[in-house]
Each structure stands twice: as structure tokens, then as C-alpha cells.
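Q: Start with the shorter request: fold the first protein.
A: Done. Sequence, then structure:
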Amino acid sequence: MLDTVTSYNPGLNVRVANHQLVTVVATGTVTVFVIGRRVTITAGVRRVSKVRVPMSLSNIYVVPQIAARLFSCRWGFDRDNIGTKLDADLCLTLPTGEIVPFIERGMHYAINVLPDAGAADALYAGVDTLDDGEADR
């Protein structure tokens, strides 16, 4: 679901793997909540904490005929300042400094997106930082 709709029926199509063109029914922006990792260094001590963090995305295409939600690494970097690391780190880097680790699913990568802001608030009410006790890489 979009937070802001910038265009209904924008006259755009997307070509899918079988070379079929499918219609974009709307474009807009969305903010999703993800579980990221924040690295802090205090008095020389490095701490990695899990945090609930918003990830804002612009120029989202709504294409009902595509079941999966897809992310463009190039668009994320060029427009939303979200970096993609496909090296040993395997993560997104957000403009706020948090990292969002990828989940490997066969030949694909995914990220954990919380269902919606309301669910994120209910799940983590009153909790800003969740210490996962893991050392960073």
C-alpha cells in the first residue's frame, strides 16, 4: 500500500521475464519498517543492536500482475540513497546509517519487512533498541 499516490494510471508498462508487458496502475511513495542493525562505539566499545527503522522508498510502481515485491538497487541508490552490498556483508545500507541484512532464499535475496507501521508499533511498543548480542561482521 502506498503512503502517497503521485499518479493513477500513469501510462507506464513493465516488461517481465517472458517479455510480456504489464501495466503500472499507480506510482507513489512508501515507508516500510524493517529490522536493521545499528553499530555504535562508546568509549572504544563496539555494540551492534537490532533496531526498528523506517525505510522510505520513492517512485514505487504498483503492478498487480507481478506477485513479488521487487527492489531496484540502482534506483534505491540513485534516488533514495540506499546502498546495496552484495559482498560478504550482504545487506542494504540506509541513509541513516543502519544496515539491513539480506536473507538468502536460494538464488534470491530478501529483507524482513514488518507488516505495517501499526504492527511495528504494537510489536515494539516502548522499545527503541533490541540488543541481539551478536558481534558485527
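Q: Next, the second protein, separately.
A: Sequence, then structure:
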Amino acid sequence: MHRADIVAGRWVAPVVLMPVVLMPVVLMLVVLMLAVLAFAPVAAQQMPPRLAGVIVAPDRRVAIFAFPDGSWTVAGEGDTVGGLTVLRIVPGGADVAADGDRRRLSPVPGPAAVPAAPPVLPVPLPQGPAPQRPERRSRPH
């Protein structure tokens, strides 16, 4: 192409039409991005909490729930958290109900989780009299 062709108007139409054709595409992308940003908090609020762990002790049972925003809460049997009603807490999980649907949740570690420690088993104390200490003998010098 020579400069004379551009000046004569042979390239004016494509140069002028390119922004006109691209403008709807750019506007559509902007609207799509705004829609995603506008509905992201709603989607995060609708996500149920994650069962992060359970604690089962002889006198208490609690479930630890983590939310997508990083916050967490502790719930007992009968409590409702994020639309989930805690029905029963057992070692390794919790039975919950939501919208008439019952299911067992297992703890799902979060992104910064460390491996769980093994359960501590009670050690039985020895029965009977305490063991006798052996007598100390002095060493000759």
C-alpha cells in the first residue's frame, strides 16, 4: 500500500469501521465483568459452610464450620449454621439436614490445614501397690 491509497480513502473505511465493530465486543465484556463482580458476594453467601472438624469429648460434642470468607463458627447438636441443621456429631463427621435432605459430612481440611494428630487413648493406671525403688549403693572411691 502506498501513501496515496490511504489519502485517497481506500483505507479510511476499514480504519473507521474497526472501532465500530470492536465497540460492542468491548461493551459486552465490560458488562459481563460487572455482572460477575456484582453477583460474586451473593454466590459466596449461598455456599454452605464447610465442616472443618469435629471435637468429641465425653461431656461435649461440637462441629467446627468454616465459611468461604475465612470466618468460622462452632456448633453443637441441634444448632443451625448457614442453612445446615446439625443433627448428630460423631467421631469423623456430623449428620446434617438442609432443605429436607439428610447427609453425613466429613471434615474437609482448609488451605492452611495441618495433619490431624492421632487420638489420645487413655492409659490405664497400674493396679496394686506402687513399685519399690531399689536401694542406692554407694560406690567405693
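Q: Describe the second briefly.
A: Strands lie at 50-56, 61-66, 72-75, 80-81, 84-90, 93-98, 101-105. The radius of gyration is 34 Å.
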